[in-house]
């Protein structure tokens, strides 16, 4: 019996093998994502709170005589941190991103006012009156600062809410399922706050070509959540069909529960089947870590990489870099860079042929580069470009085979490893699964380790993998 994971799921990957091209994945503005937008507003609030103290300071000579510009900035930084803590303490539990705009503005305004006044109280307690003449003037400065910061915080939230609506910062929803169910969900989503949901499309999964059209929208990278709304005796098969087609896409997939039959609920209820590993603050932090470390590594290692490039030129005829099409996030082809380790005429661009023990195609220098993983260093450029991450499943060549089958056909759930950006190193590599995957057993183990990483991903796990790699996880002394 055929594996249900493969049914209708691999034809699109086979088409990529014939003529791989870069997929058009438009990048959204930084502030178009709700999480990122809220982060930008919070940072702007902290900045205005710090700067406002400097702006009003010259109007109060007593304050200017007591606090230098540098000390004022330090006080502002302390107030900004206290304001964040106050906003979190006052936020109703379970209401993130769902509060009324005016309630959010009021809470931010009160938090900034309290933060500045707490800083003022600390100054009154710690500073001696003998070195701070005219305490009334200093008090007036703190009050003016607190009122200004309070008004600025409220203004930022109210203006931010208007900008969010204009940018349609809500989640772009795609609905797949029974026509009646889909219409009911569209009506409820459209009846909600305009900045929370935006329906990008609705497809009846029973209609010919509907799922293909839905997948096409997801592949473009403009969908935040796919809502599956099906009912009937064959519900599980229909849900599985949609989920399998989207298995390799970095998108949240939610099952819409039949809320009319739930007497205790009068609103939409979803059960998440899969999430987007790149979404939210954690995804932003992971990308920031990639940019920081890969940029720093390129600067530090650039002399070494220049020497390697020169050595390759002296060792054999041909280009310094080797480019190969591999699977990236969402099963999209990416062009991965490596230092060339084989003779120019023997390069394997397809990746279909495994490197054998003492492979004659590998140059003398190339054998050293492969065993020390120095040949992978140009992939730091892939990380900066956004094709890869420092940590993640290793990108496999499009034509990579296990026995007589393509890798994505031989191993069930293989497409799931493409839900996250491929990495320079990963959980599989630091756990001994390196080098050629020439048997089905090795292939299954590699995929299991990759899926473990995706299901348990955290910044702490990334740092652990980086530490294990730095302690020798990049070495492969039997590589040829």
From TrEMBL:
Bilayer-spanning residue ranges: 35-56, 62-89, 110-127, 139-159, 291-312
Pfam families, per the entry: Bac_transf (PF02397)
Cellular component GO terms, alphabetical: membrane
Record InterPro entries: Bact_transf, EPS_sugar_tfrase
Keyword set includes Transferase: yes
Domain of life: Bacteria
Family statement drawn from the similarity comment of this UniProt entry: Belongs to the bacterial sugar transferase family.
PANTHER family: COLANIC BIOSYNTHESIS UDP-GLUCOSE LIPID CARRIER TRANSFERASE (PTHR30576), UNDECAPRENYL-PHOSPHATE N-ACETYLGALACTOSAMINYL 1-PHOSPHATE TRANSFERASE-RELATED (PTHR30576:SF0)
Name of this chain's protein: Exopolysaccharide biosynthesis polyprenyl glycosylphosphotransferase
Annotated source species: Dankookia rubra
């Amino acid at each position: 019996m055929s594996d249900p994971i493969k049914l209708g799921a691999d034809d699109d990957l086979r088409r990529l093998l014939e003529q791989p091209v870069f997929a058009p994945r438009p990048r959204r503005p930084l502030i178009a994502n709700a999480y990122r937008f809220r982060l930008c507003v919070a940072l702007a609030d902290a900045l205005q709170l710090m700067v406002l103290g400097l702006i009003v300071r010259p109007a109060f000579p007593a304050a200017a005589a007591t606090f230098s510009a540098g000390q004022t900035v330090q006080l502002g930084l302390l107030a900004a941190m206290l304001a964040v803590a106050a906003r979190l303490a006052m936020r109703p539990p379970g209401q993130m991103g769902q509060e009324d705009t005016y309630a959010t503005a009021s809470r931010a305004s009160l938090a900034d006012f309290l933060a500045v006044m707490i800083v003022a109280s600390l100054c009154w307690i710690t500073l001696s009156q003998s070195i701070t003449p005219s305490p009334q003037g200093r008090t007036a400065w703190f009050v003016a600062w607190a009122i200004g910061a309070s008004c600025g915080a409220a203004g930022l939230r109210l203006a931010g809410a208007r900008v969010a609506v204009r940018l349609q910062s809500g989640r772009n929803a795609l609905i797949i399922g029974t026509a009646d169910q889909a219409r009911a969900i569209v009506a409820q989503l459209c009846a909600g706050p305009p900045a929370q949901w935006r329906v990008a499309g609705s497809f009846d999964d029973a209609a010919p070509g509907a799922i293909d059209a839905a997948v096409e929208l997801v592949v473009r990278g403009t969908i935040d959540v796919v809502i599956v709304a099906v009912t009937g005796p064959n519900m599980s098969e229909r849900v599985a069909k949609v989920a399998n087609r989207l298995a390799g896409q970095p998108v949240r997939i939610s099952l819409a529960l039949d809320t009319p039959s739930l007497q205790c609920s009068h609103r939409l209820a979803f059960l998440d089947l899969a999430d987007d590993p790149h979404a939210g603050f954690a995804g932003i932090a992971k990308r920031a870590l990639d940019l920081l470390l890969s940029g720093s590594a390129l600067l530090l290692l650039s002399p070494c990489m220049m020497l390697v490039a020169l050595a390759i030129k002296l060792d054999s005829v041909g280009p310094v870099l080797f480019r190969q099409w591999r699977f990236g996030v969402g099963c999209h082809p990416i062009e991965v860079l490596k230092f060339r380790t084989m003779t120019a005429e023997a390069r394997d661009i397809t990746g279909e042929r495994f490197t054998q023990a003492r492979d004659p195609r590998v140059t003398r220098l190339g054998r050293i580069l492969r065993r020390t993983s120095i040949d992978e260093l140009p992939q730091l450029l892939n990380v900066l470009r956004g094709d890869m991450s420092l940590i993640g499943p290793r990108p496999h060549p499009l034509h990579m085979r296990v026995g007589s089958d393509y890798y994505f056909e031989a191993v069930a759930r293989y497409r799931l490893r493409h839900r996250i950006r491929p990495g320079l190193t990963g959980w599989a590599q630091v756990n001994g699964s390196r080098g050629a995957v020439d048997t089905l057993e090795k292939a299954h183990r590699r995929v299991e380790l990759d899926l473990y990483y995706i299901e348990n991903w955290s910044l702490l796990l990334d740092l652990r993998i980086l530490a294990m790699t730095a302690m020798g996880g990049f070495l492969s002394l039997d590589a040829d």
